[in-house]
Model the fold of this input.
Amino acid sequence: MKRVLFFFVLFALHTTLVAQFNDQRAFQYLVKQVAFGPRNPNSEGHQKCLEFLHQEFKQFADTVILQPFEWYDAYHKKTLKLTNVIARFQPQNERRIFLAAHWDTRPRADMDTEENKNTPIPGANDGASGVAVLLEIARVLQMQPPTNIGVDLVLFDGEDYGRQGHLEEYFLGSRYFAKHYHRLNFSHEFGILIDMIGDAQLNLKREGYSVKYLPWLVDRVWKTAQNMGYYEFSDQFLGYVDDDHVPLLEAGIPCINIIDFDYPYWHTLEDTPDKCSPQSLGIIGRVLLEVIYEQ
Done:
């Protein structure tokens, strides 16, 4: 009887912690980022947002690591100043997982009309949405750190910089992170990347590289979501999406991608907060917290 009561109390506590994710607070984090203006590398909005992210994470995390680096753009003949942000919870715990998103925005709206193609995008969904979820998760983890596992929240810079058809110009932050991963003595059981998850019409199919390399983790996350009643996590196959998880997988760092690629405002000036939904952020946030606390 005592054992049954213990598990009932544990389940109730677990459910309460997951419910602590605040949809509206997460959405305000999204709006705040967009208010800085475009966050493409070397821009004023990029610098302001970096300072904001650093200060927010310092409120919640045990340790915050800034990972600055430079990348030379040979085509435009300029040097980019980039920074990954890593917020660590319970860094002493050897068992670890990570959640990741990119925080930069695209410097050109190349899917927009001809007159707008060279204008930086606002990046509400493609840039701010994943970060907003991780910031709110940071607040919940600070309130009640998981007992069995340490968590790192990683924000990659320079994901969306490249020209079309030049993959070597994309995923700059995740490439740098992967290259220096072992120098930081990092080790993770798995990671989950979230990208473009704020769409008000959320539809999350199973991404190809994720299914190929880590089918067990895709199954776990999707089943967790569906058991919570979130059928926005579809069993349909998305296809292969080049994103920040690919350099990680190539380096032997296990990571899957949760992404809604059916977004008509992608890489346009119409990627604004009104196309996003607090409810979508809440779905992703609660599923990720469930995955964390069930470890």
Notes: The chain has one domain: 2-293.
